[in-house]
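User: Here's a chain of 247 residues. Predict its fold as tokens.
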Amino acid sequence: MHCPEGGDGTVIEDNYIENPEFALECINKVVKAAIKNDLYVIIDWHTYYPHKEEAKKFFGMMAEKYGKYPHVIYEIYNEPMKDTWEEVKEYAREVIGEIRKHDPDNVILVGNPNFDQRLDLVAESPLEGYENIIYTLHFYAATHSDELRNRAQAAWEKGIPIFVSECAGMEASGDGPLNVEEWQRWIDWMEAHKISWVNWSISDKNETCSMILPRASKKGGWTEELIKPYGRMVREFVRKYNEGIYK
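Assistant: Prediction complete.
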């Protein structure tokens, strides 16, 4: 759980680097609650810049504490922005090494350049010598369509495992109108390839991608009128594609 900078480089308060005690208190609550409720939980180093030494310390700590639980997935670099794939690979080797000291087998998600959109580079030179490594893809349906999907398809055909750890139906800004038709094309593609996907985001900001209204309780139990249109659509997708699991 880490978010040191916004997209414009501004510092976001109470992140792990600026306030580690507070950030760890937050993430420990979430991870423990997920384990208690038998849910998967992604521990995500949510940044555009690597902060490698801090990441190594953080993930080593998380793996030592939670690595015995099969619920835990590690996302070691959310969206590389300026790093080359070779730089991301070197970073990944070091962070993965720290995780595997304590956790030999839980899934590790590895990002790639240009906001997790260069799986073609991954396919040309994937990490070698590791197990349970999956590469991430991010898309926003009103911005990304056939070009990115075709690139991902080509990587898939070369044997690259893919996990869509962030996606949504609007523009890449997280705002603007939904493109429901293109969003459905992406979902059809992911379901056809049995690729796991995570929608962004359960939040109450004034933007299209935030799923709930500000007056919604942080404890959940939201009624229909507290969930924004995008959130209601995500909920229906989750129910549709997990029939028999969610009621």
